[in-house]
Amino acid sequence: MLSQKELQELIIYRFIDAYVDLYSELNVHVITKQFHIHRATASAILTKYKKENQVI
């Protein structure tokens, strides 16, 4: 079973995939506004997403 943090990250990862498919770019500001999370948290999630998906 996923923890609340893992579930939130999974939801944000899916949002990132969809947003990038639609707009071809994404920044932390979009994530913070959509999910009402702190900028540092959004940045950490986006960085982790990039590393896991070999975007960097």
Report what the structure shows.
This protein has 56 residues and is mainly alpha-helical. The protein has one domain (4-52). It contains three helices and no strands. The protein has helices spanning 4-23, 28-35, 39-52. The longest helix has 20 residues, at 4-23. The chain is globular. The mean pLDDT is 94. Keywords: Plasmid.
Supply the key terms.
56 residues; mainly alpha; 3 helices; 75% helix
Through-space gap between termini: 30 Å
Give the oligomer, counting copies of the same chain as homo and different chains as hetero.
single chain
The helix content, as a percent range, equals over 70%
The percent range for strand residues is under 5%
Total DSSP E strands: 0
Number of domains: 1
Question: Which structural class is indicated by helix and strand composition?
Answer: mainly alpha
Q: What would you report as the Rg, rounded to the nearest angstrom?
A: 11 Å
SS field, number of helical segments: 3
Largest sheet: none
Helix and strand element order: HHH
Keywords: Plasmid
Please give the structural blueprint:
Elements: H1 4-23, H2 28-35, H3 39-52
Helix pairs in contact: 2-3
Offer a quick outline of the entry.
The chain has 56 residues and is mostly helical. The chain has one domain (4-52).
